[in-house]
Amino acid sequence: MREAAEQRGGLREKTDINLLVVLGATASGKTRLGVELARRLNGEIISADSRQVFRGMDLGTGKDLSEYGEVPFHLIDIAEAGSEFSLFAFQRHFFSAFADIQRRGRLPLLVGGTGLYLDAVLRGYRLIEVPPDPSLRARLATLDDATLRARLRRLKPEQHNTTDLMERARLVRAIEIAEGERAAAAELPPLPEVRPLVLGLRWERAALRRRIGLRLRERLAQGMVDEVARLHAAGVSWERLEFYGLEYRFIARHLQGALDYDTMLQQLATAIGQFAKRQETFFRRMERQGVEIHWVHAEEEPLEQAMKRMF
């Protein structure tokens, strides 16, 4: 621990950072690198994954809890499967964990691949909790989807969550939140100061596709189909499982008889590969918007590369 503390002291003296970020596409090895860095730097992990917050959703979200060992982690298994967990809730929980880790003299590491979660911290989104507004929803119900999408883009020109644009219920809720945020913006308190160093894991695309396929088969062999069946048996609806992302969506369809196993496997692997490309596109957008990401080559001793970036 003394060596870790000394290394962390050198890091703080050189860069004055108070947050280390490890991001990358799915299956890129973010958790492993984050844990290795936490061990060296007397750190604790804060997860930036929109699905790992849910209890009982383990294989489908790639929690890999066995990798953490003695390293403390936060924002994993904090909500019931079947419930909703908003970007506002993530930001609130993040800043609480961030302050707690700092008070104990340790280094917070934000590790994950959910672009909105990462961007909300790194670019300081000004979020508020917006309750449902029945009168606004009644007015929006008279408008078609194209008009609603145009309205959301006017409210949030930087809108980047395409799911909100495609699904009507999410589109209405996104407008509701944007309207509420605009109305309350002047009264928001300042956010805690974050001075980050952002590391990104990068693979050649073909290599990442191979990793995605291998990890998918491993998780299926470990019982991912059974996990989805248990969640549904415990009361999580098929519709909610669709909402929870690709693994749950395609396996739910398989369990309902819409896809045979081999077709499910093929379509799911393809969809995860496409999702990884969207993640990389999001990270490039973050860079264009001012987030400096120090990329490390995942196939060439990423831990040593990461350490060299910091010292």
UniProtKB/TrEMBL annotation:
Q: Name one GO molecular function term.
A: tRNA dimethylallyltransferase activity
Output the superkingdom of the source species. Answer: Bacteria
Which major enzyme category is it? transferase
Q: Catalysed reaction(s)?
A: adenosine(37) in tRNA + dimethylallyl diphosphate = N(6)-dimethylallyladenosine(37) in tRNA + diphosphate
Residue ranges crossing the lipid bilayer per the database entry: none
Q: Which Gene Ontology BP annotations are present? A: tRNA modification
Any idea which positions bind ATP?
24-31
List ligand-binding residues for substrate.
26-31
Q: Which InterPro entries match?
A: Dimethylallyltransferase, IPT, P-loop_NTPase
Which PANTHER family does its entry note? TRNA DIMETHYLALLYLTRANSFERASE
Q: How does it assemble?
A: Monomer.
Tell me which HAMAP family the record gives: IPP_trans (MF_00185)
Q: Which family does it belong to?
A: Belongs to the IPP transferase family.
What this protein is called in its record is tRNA dimethylallyltransferase
